[in-house]
Amino acid sequence: MLSIALPKGSLEEQTLMLFAQADLEVKKESRGYNPSINDPRISKVKILRPQEIPTYVSEGYFDLGIGGHDWIVESNADVVEVADMPYAKTGAGIMRLVVAVPEDSPIQKPEDIPAGSRVSTELPNVTRKYFEKLGIPVKISFSYGATEAKVPELVDIVVDLTETGSTLRRNRLRIIDTVLESTTRLMANKQSWADPEKRQAIEEIKTLLLGVMEARGKVLISMNVPEGKLEEIVAVLPALKKPTVSKLYNSDYFAIETVVEKSNVNILIPKLKAFGAEDIIELSLSKIIR
Question: Where are the beta strands (DSSP E) in 8-117?
């Protein structure tokens, strides 16, 4: 029913992992040109350059695509951004398109950039609009990669995508402004979104993908608690909404279950034990569906 375009390159590994965890595993052929997903809602899968995906989805070659908001803006693609899925090549994260200058440059803010400066970027349309808004005429050249390496011999300024800024710093570049922030998006063709049958399938796939993302970094904690300690423990227990509490059969104990951040478990479990919780179990989660 649905044709889907998935990104290759830096987003590929994380995207394939996300789909696998959502029980939508992408199976590749030996050469990888025509992968498939064993799901009745999905008829075709292609893995393409992320720069191309918004345009192909907009033009109806695919019903659904995964790609960065930055490339949707750059290509001026007329698509429906169905869901924000903030993951990048190193995991969860937000990409920024930034303006960077040599660290020893006298330029401190965008307004200081001299007219006629040479600018290198992989997103020339977004960059052109940015400098037009500033009212600064510059010479923009398209970069095929390693944009940061072109300063200062070939260009004066770079407008580059970064997740942490570490590569720019290693190349002695200093960020002076952020042009836009971008996360990975689930995007749909407008006609497909307007089709009731396809929209239902898209919504179902979105539910699975977002369920995986919601579960990341969280675990389920269960424990048994004596009745006299119940209120005290519930008061210190984090939860998505409220913890689930049920009385154990023929006992003065209660069972408690709740979802908590994995990063806090090392502090939380000893505290729960000190407050009187017993039989504490920590379980990993694959999906949380709101």
Answer: 26-27, 36-37, 42-48, 64-68, 80-85, 87-88, 91-92, 95-102
Q: What is the mean pLDDT of the chain?
A: 93
CA distance 14 to 281: 29
Domain assignment present for residue 290? The answer is no
Contact in structure between 87 and 19 (CB atoms under 8 Å): no
**CA count, 13 A, side-chain hemisphere, 280:** 18
Domain span at residue 114 reads 95-182
- Pairing relationship of beta strands 87-88 and 91-92 according to DSSP bridges: antiparallel
Report the b/e string of 155-192 with b at 16+ CB within 10 A.
Answer: bbbbbbbbeeeeebeebebbbbbebbebbbbbbbbeeb
Whether 198 and 255 map to the same domain: the answer is: no
Average pLDDT for residues 18-35, to the nearest whole number? 87
Mean predicted confidence (pLDDT) in 225-236: 93
Residue 93 has pLDDT above 90, yes or no: no
Which of 182, 207, 239 is the last residue before a domain boundary? Answer: 182
Whether 63 and 110 map to the same domain: the answer is no
Give the pLDDT confidence score for residue 126 in this predicted structure: 97
pLDDT at 9 over 70: yes
